[in-house]
Specification:
The structure holds two protein chains of two kinds. Chain A is built from no helices and eleven strands. By secondary structure, chain A is an all-beta fold. The N and C termini of chain B lie far apart (37 Å). Classes of the chains: A mainly beta, B mainly beta. Chains A and B meet through β4, β5 and β10 of A and β4, β5, β9 and β10 of B.
Chain lengths: 113, 109
């Protein structure tokens, strides 16, 4: 069975640009969560989507947005990139039920210059 | 609310035991444990639910004391492959996981 896939694996952008990150969950999973992980820290929750609806949002500015498609894949968009947005962006897939384990994808390494 | 993990780092020799603690100031519904190796994504280890149950996975087990809002991860007879950073993720109201800063574990031969 395919695990969680994310694209691209690496990305280099300059300040002020926009970026779109993509995630495909495990087959049968209906929920996708996005996390930002800076070096030396634990993942920080950005968004959670379930059945194409936003179910939760972390403490991130409005420059961050996301959506989930009918096939349950998801996109994370970040506008007006700042240097501080440089991080590993992780997508986690789960069934969407409470207390259910989340399985992480390999992540997208974003570098903002 | 970010859970607090302790210790921040630990170095073990192969075969030794270790305990990693995770505590929260808020009521918890569940605690999730992950291990992340350098340059890789976090890998799910186990989830503990309300009720104080203890779970095990090979020689790694964990407990969850909901009254104290604490969880502990026990690594028994550590192996080289146990090296990595361990994160606890706590689930409060809602479904998002709040992760601690991690505990770096190094197992040496």
């Amino acid at each position: 069975d395919a695990g969680v896939t994310q694209s691209p694996t690496h990305l280099i952008k300059t300040r002020g640009q926009h970026v779109t990150l993509r995630c495909s969950p495990i087959s049968g999973h209906k929920s996708v969560s996005w996390y930002q992980q800076v070096l030396g820290q634990g993942p920080q929750f950005i968004f959670q989507y379930y059945e194409k609806e936003e179910r939760g949002r972390g403490n991130f500015p409005d420059r961050f947005s996301a959506r989930q498609f009918p096939n349950y894949s998801s996109e994370l968009n970040v506008n007006a990139l700042l240097l501080g947005d440089s991080a590993l962006y992780l997508c986690a897939s789960s069934s969407g039920l409470s207390y259910n384990e989340q399985f992480f994808g390999p992540g997208t390494r974003l570098t903002v210059l | 609310q970010q859970p607090v993990q302790s210790p921040q780092a630990v170095i073990l020799r192969e075969g030794e035991d270790a305990v990693i603690n995770c505590s929260s100031s808020k009521a918890l519904y569940s605690v999730h444990w992950y291990r992340q190796k350098h340059g890789e994504a976090p890998v799910f280890l186990m989830i503990l639910l309300k009720g104080g149950e203890q779970k095990g996975h090979d020689k790694i087990s964990a407990s969850f004391n909901e009254k104290k809002q604490q969880s502990s991860l026990y690594l028994t007879a550590s192996q080289l492959s146990y090296s990595g950073t361990y994160f606890c993720g706590t689930e409060g109201s809602g479904y998002a996981l709040n992760f601690g800063k991690g505990t770096s574990l190094l197992v040496t031969p």
